[in-house]
Amino acid sequence: MGTLLFGKKNKKDEKKIADKEISVIDIVHAMRNEPSEIMIEEESIEYDNKIIDYNNLIDIILDEFIVNRPNLINAVERGVRSKEELTREIFMFLKLQEVVLNKEELAELMSRFETYVWGYGILQELIDNPDISDIKTIDYNNIRIKVKGVRKNSDVKFADRESLKKYINYIAIKNNSILSEINAIQKFTDKESSKDFILRINISSEFINSNGLPCLIIRKIPKNKYDISDLRKLGMFNEEIENYLQEAMSSGLSIFSTGKGASGKTTLINALMDEIPDDKACLVIQEAEELFTGKHPDMIFQKVKFAKGDGNIEYTLRDLSINGLLMDLDYFIIGEIKGAEAYDMANAIYTGHAGIASVHGNSAEEAVNKIVHYMKYVSDMKKGELLEMLSNIDIIIFMKDFKIMEIAEVSGFNYEMQTLEFNRVFQYEITKKNNGYIGEFKLINSSCEKIEKKKLYSKYNKSINL
């Protein structure tokens, strides 16, 4: 390894160091050009300290550029300043700190620094692992991960609590956010850092966390998303359900998915979106940018913008959904219903749009009750009146542990009881057999009259427009 010097150099070495040091401009050119374009003597200089602590050196650089000059990295992330400018500033900082590195050592430092700054440093290996879907920092030595649906400890550890704090603060900065008492909770999506995954990131600072540490939670969404066939092969449903879902999408039916977090709702919706016929116009609004397509030609994506700090400019799901009702659309898609936008979704499907959305719940009935609760944020209509609006939902899919547990059709509205009527079509049944348990998908009913009529009309409409 090379050497790392801080403070003043020994007088006997000053001439040697002066002969060996490279100007910042020469280093910048060396990083751009072939190694042969800048010459450094082969023999090394002997110092008392002979091991470079690259991690410590990166920490020192980050202290300067996160604590003292956070706007520079932020500006590079936004494209206002170039990476070259940041690199030049780092070289100047190293010179001022009297850090002496030869060209190879400097290249190694910059390689590690770029992995940290433009990637995710110590957590990068977890982000790159395709079997890991979720990452959570509990403490510096307790990084939890979810591997194929199973939560466990990772082998990754930070040096100490300060290193963890510094790391999480940097993650906020590199994603155009700064943690503070005003901004103690940060939510954002990183679509650029990983070539394989979209990263949905949630940070809560020590200002609100009882253990005095910030907490970083990363949800990974594959960029090469699963299609309907892939999900069948992964066991989310069987071939009969696959055919049912494909026919539902080709017929323009409104489909809602429900279940707890990480049950597979978003993954299923992402696959269903690519089954929408190409001649349909779609609007997708979402808080976290998890839904996307590389296939459909007429799909507009919009995202929530939160007010930050003292700023008051924001665009909520409600704002986007109200605007969506004024657009020329066939499909109205909301990533996750969480508030008053539920009323606008209900209004959209009530007036003839097809709707796709997810909402937290443990059954079709609970999902509907949750939506009604959200609708009442902005409406004083009676529950029965709101349920009547929701009778235009066609299918509600209950998800659990990346599996479809139930598919229920909304068959109609009971005016006497003021309730929705459901027709359960598929169910995942678990039975005990010998010394174990088996689960299987079962068809328990044919589609209801309402759904059959919609499918029939869709086929008729396609036939006359050939």
Automatic annotation (TrEMBL):
Residues 123-371 form the Bacterial type II secretion system protein E domain. InterPro entries: P-loop_NTPase, T2SS/T4SS_dom, T4SS_GSP_E_ATPase. This is CpaF family protein. Belongs to the GSP E family. One of its GO terms (molecular function) is ATP hydrolysis activity. PANTHER family: TWITCHING MOTILITY PROTEIN PILT, TYPE IV PILUS RETRACTATION ATPASE PILT.
